[in-house]
Amino acid sequence: MAAATRRAASSLVARCLLAGRASAAGAPPAVPSALRRPDGTRGLLPGVFQRFSTAAVAEEPISPPVQVNYTKLLINGDFVDSASGKTFPTLDPRTGDVIAHVAEGDAEDVNRAVNAARKAFDEGPWPKMTAYERSRILLRFADLIEKHNDEIAALETWDNGKPYEQAALIEVPMVARLMRYYAGWADKIHGLIVPADGPHHVQVLHEPIGVAGQIIPWNFPLLMFAWKVGPALACGNTVVLKTAEQTPLSALYVSKLLHEAGLPEGVLNVISGFGPTAGASLASHMDVDKLAFTGSTDTGKIVLELAARSNLKPVTLELGGKSPFIIMDDADVDQAVELAHFALFFNQGQCCCAGSRTFVHERVYDEFVEKSKARALKRVVGDPFRKGVEQGPQIDEEQFNKILRYIRSGVDSGATLVTGGDKLGDKGYYVQPTIFSDVQDGMKIAQEEIFGPVQSILKFNDLNEVIKRANASQYGLAAGVFTNNLDTANTLTRALKVGTVWVNCFDIFDAAIPFGGYKQSGIGREKGIDSLKNYLQIKAVVTPLKNAAWL
Amino acid sequence: MATTDGCSNGNGKAASVVVPEIKFTKLFINGEFVDAVSAKVRNVTCVCYDFNPAGKTFETRDPRTGDVLAHVAEGDKADVDLAVKAARDAFEHGKWPRMSGYERGRIMNKFADLVDQHTEELAALDGADAGKLLLLGKIIDIPSATQMLRYYAGAADKIHGEVLRVSGKYQGYTLKEPIGVVGVIIPWNFPTMMFFLKVSPALAAGCTIVVKPAEQTPLSALYYAHLAKLAGIPDGVINVVPGFGETAGAAISSHMDVDSVAFTGSTEIGRVIMESAARSNLKTVSLELGGKSPMIIFDDADVDMAVNLSRLAIFFNKGEICVAGSRVYVQEGIYDEFVKKSVEAARNWKVGDPFDASSNMGPQIDKVQFEKVLKYIEHGQSEGATLLTGGKPTGDKGYYIEPTIFTEVKEDMKIAQEEIFGPVMCLMKFKTVEEAIEKANCTRYGLAAGIVTKSLDIANRVSRSVRAGTVWVNCYFAFDPDAPFGGYKMSGFGRDQGMGAMDKYLQVKSVITALPDSPWY
To answer: Could you tell me if A399 and A484 are in contact, meaning their C-beta atoms sit under 8 angstroms apart?
Structure first.
């Protein structure tokens, strides 16, 4: 795919994933731009994947156009076997087949990686080189990502199951974009000179914090890599990164590119492995200065505890969510349906910020449910490598079964199953796009994070009521608001206890927009200028002033 | 690049000089190289060469020989009008201010890559046009310029408004919007750096630009316009109009459709520019003007280091630098040793063809400056200062002057008060820190200052007490894109470099919305 097309599509998607804007401009209600062909038509082969067609999944999986070249641990600039020699299989979620056997990191490997990172931090050259030099390396890395866009995207899709077009047109370009964003920060990290009450000169230095441990999830393997590694490197830190055991491949690939771009050895170490072993070693390591984790709230609690029990390393957590998507009665229902559909089903519903509680005003409720059903039925599920596919398989068997259990729980608790409700095909981890209506706040499907293609629609009739209900959650990651009433939008925006509010849009993830959670959705923010302070120590330097002209 | 024997103007017997090929000599307006619209007749008798009959041109000369390097289209009011119109159209209707900061940044990064790829050629162009050292051009001027461009490329997506804490039932926020069409008038001493110092933040902000390079050094700016286009900067966003201050420059500063003017040059011209801004449309003005910067050396200094640093501070770029350390104050304990070693150091500062890698210093920019510097040297002698070394032209052609040092300089002498803009150091003695501060501040300028000391207390005290926009402690000329640069007092106002420089090219808009019902205010 031509780079220009890719960029254009990517920026389009980033700006407006909703039909809304296109409709306003007179175009027909649209599918997310990434899923459109350049000529604007839906990239759907006629009759092939209609309505969660099992034909799609029954077909022979498309052979991914990429080789798996890197399966070892990356420690101190070299790809090495694990100390134990152990490996684990990473599976193709389309089939459950083994893609590759990957070196399995454990405590000893984490130790080696932390040592390498410590040495690279203490002895340099990374923190000692100029910020401009660091920024040049990150810029070169971005160029290399762009150059290898399609291979990286293929690897991502193969390991994760997400639509290839989504990976190639949105996510991989976004990784390059994030790297350029952080490259631009490297030489603009400012401490303040603060006023003193007496004759003192006070400088506030922002210093790199040291060795950063980072643990990332499987739903957006490379974007999560970029969110973590970008700011850590821009600030001059060294890193030990543990990828998710479901998706170890793409991080190894791009880390190789980062070294090609000039990253010194030991600055970024990548450990593939499991949470209870490699992850726990990193979180409890006495020589790791900072920990950043994205994943489930349960694991986040463990990570925070391990940090507390070891060396009190500061922790940032980006955890689960049960984000409300609120549709007011003034909404254009067609647009609201499309946006709410996208907010939940994007990435197979495997988004921490998925709009998984769709609150609809009673005046538009019936129409909304009807049209949502029609939209879900049209959702194109199939081999993610096939053009026009909107939804691939879930990540693995465990998630697949968990989602199906939640669906049963929804039915058992009395919600109305509007559409879907079962697996799709007999191979791999495909789940039908599923919608429940008449969902009540107390139901499990309205309380817990399903992390799958299951939309729960709830009815409300009053603004204050919906604020209260939307906030009645242990989570506070994000919210969607759909209204054109300025006062309503402003009131909701400020009343919702969440880290991100999207008004008449959803999943807009620009590099400069901070992202993170209130309540049990986590601690701290990623992206934007705020992400830098996760990776900086602050040092006040106070010097007496003798006879200076002013204070 | 070609080697000539310099016979082109009949002044023939000197050693060969390397002359780079000149590719761009026309005005750059709306993405095209065009002739000047003004009539060709000018008050100069052009006795030679094929000049373009289509429009007015002027000569740019090689200061190593005084030979004509090229005939360059001469912009005047009518040309400035066209350039401003192109910039206005590009601003009001074009993509540049409307694309994302990220996209602007990407194009600017590409621009930087292209400049890097042409380093050799561009350094040679400035070398021949401005008499600057070729080697330093390659390792300092051009790489610093691309660093600047990349710095602001990285700033383009970091222009932040603020969400305000308004008292009352309101929501308030600020938007930072590009200011519009920016006029940029730059000097000849650092043709490349000055171009990017102004153009980079203006581009990042989303402005469109009309640049007038100095008439002495129009060539590299035209080359940059060409590279900007190659990089994908849309037509009309950068326009370059070579010409003279009283015509093209005045047309920009008094233009009713230019929203802001950024100027670097002399204090006298800065005043004229501010006045024409005031008389026309009250455009915002930023001025980076002259200096008479003190270099203050304390008794505890390592004398050799101080001698080297102060030599660099005044003789670098032949003293043609607004921040030149032109007043050197030395504490009495080391004064004699310092003087002795400085004379020696000045004599070892090699004057010669800037294309010769062993040269420390090339010729002054042109005849006018050359004569002005020699005149100041005469003044120094007649006012009673002691000429320790130098003081004369050197070489048998071109505008070379010996590194010159005066001692016994008094604060009220012309050479201690006025900007010479040449290789002339004024050496003075002081006793106490108080006295040094007082003397350092005894000037109408306030651009920069240097301090050489090992004492933390002295460094901190003097840093705060000197009224200057930049203070270098145990270093000099340590410029960085992240370090704001500009003057106190009559050295100007506004700052180049740093994130703050973006503000010169941005308007601030406060948006206040009634917020009848919010859980918090």
So the answer is: no
